[in-house]
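Worked example 2:
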Amino acid sequence: MPLNDPEAPASGPDDTPSALFRTRVDERGQERAGETDDVVAEEMPVAMVYNGISHAVMMATPSDLEDFAVGFSLTESILHTPDELYDLSVQRSPAGATVDMTIASERLFALKAQRRNMAGRTGCGLCGTESLDHAIRAIPRIDAPPALSDDAVQTAVRDLKQHQPLQAETGATHAAAWCDLDGAILAVREDVGRHNALDKLVGHWLRQGRSFERGFALISSRGSFEMVQKSAMVGIGGLVAVSAPTGLAIREARKANMTLIGFARPGRHVIYHCGQTSTTDAKQESPT
């Protein structure tokens, strides 16, 4: 494949922006030095527009944008169900992409009342939040979180890498996977942003009319409170992160009755909270 002009945007078939950008680099090192070809992950601004009102601009990998828009709308509680989205179209230009959505009028009224502008950078989940009241939303409770076996977690962790083609080529993207109770990976989405990867996975899965009742999500990032919140908003009862959680994430997982696992690596993982199928709340601990 010929290299892209460094001054031109990467593109795929039919001028669709590509998730990859190819360029020439000057590599330095003891083992190898000189000019060579390199492949890096692409990113671009993606505007979320609801009934003609621009609500958020996110930096994202320019692939699976329909999934991204639906997942973002649901995990941010703009929509409660996919049925409240009536129409969706993606407009692309050299400046970025605009996702135009038509949503139910009651959800639009709620969105206007929210007065939340989330324009921000990759990996920033709170940019533009207007007040502390908006920073941490009330989190729903998972009534029947799945029982996750150690074998299932380890199976998913072992197999995740082979489902990350963008990461394999670029070393710059996160992945979010949906796994069944045996640890088999059923769906994966990748993005330069960890929140975006999860949103894309959520949108993909729910657009097929499926639910998150039986299984767990595996993410290639830390288990931040935003990832816990986004998961709970769509009924994901088990979240497994490759890296560490935060204290706030653990407390939010307890509120949501969600199973939260961190440091999920081959041969090891740490259970920070195990969701309970009974109505008895797990013992709460104070932050130290």
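The CA atoms of residues 70 and 107 lie 14 Å apart. The first helix runs from residue 65 to 75.
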